[in-house]
Amino acid sequence: xxxxxxxAAVPTGNTFDKYGSTNPVVRRLMAGFHRTLDELWxxxxxxxxxxxxxxxxxxxxxxxxxxxxxRAVGVDLDDxxxxxxxxxxxxxxxxxxxxxxxxxxxxxxxxxxxxxIEVLExxxxxxxTLAEMARVAERHLLxxxxxxxxxxxxxxARGAYWRxxxxxxxxxxxxxxxxxxxxxGRYGTVAEVRSPFPWTMLLVRLx
Length: 207
Known about the structure:
By secondary structure, the chain is of the alpha/beta class. Helix content is about 30%, strand content about 20%.
């Protein structure tokens, strides 16, 4: 996403490293998250992918490895910290770009799958981002968001973000599982609905 990021969508605003955490509770939750994500990935069996809001590129790089020679592209806001992380995760079949998720530069159906993992809760206009993802993907969308109000309740229970009623900094959108399924149903057929605690994760079939 080019240009300065609005306050609601700063890519490195939430700096907690959930992928590399050594906290046993976080590790257990992330194990369930990854297991479910892997199951949906295998079901989609993509030949190429676009990872919208790829962050540091942790998942993008992992997926690029699985694709072998298949094309993988990760896009996010222009941020020096992210660029440094991207340089550490390089492959011949992997490209990183700064892109505006609401006006992607790719052609219709250019990718087999478009993913947005823990991204849509941060973007100012999720419908616009999803519409672009559905445009550039030919077969599937793979998306996940925190499940509300569970997510905020857990934050309050652990004594975090009390002043904002448990809202994680940078989260500007909040969906229950039912609301998220209804939203994604506007862009395709929701093929799978999963609930790895405390997230909602969907595989959407396009066309």
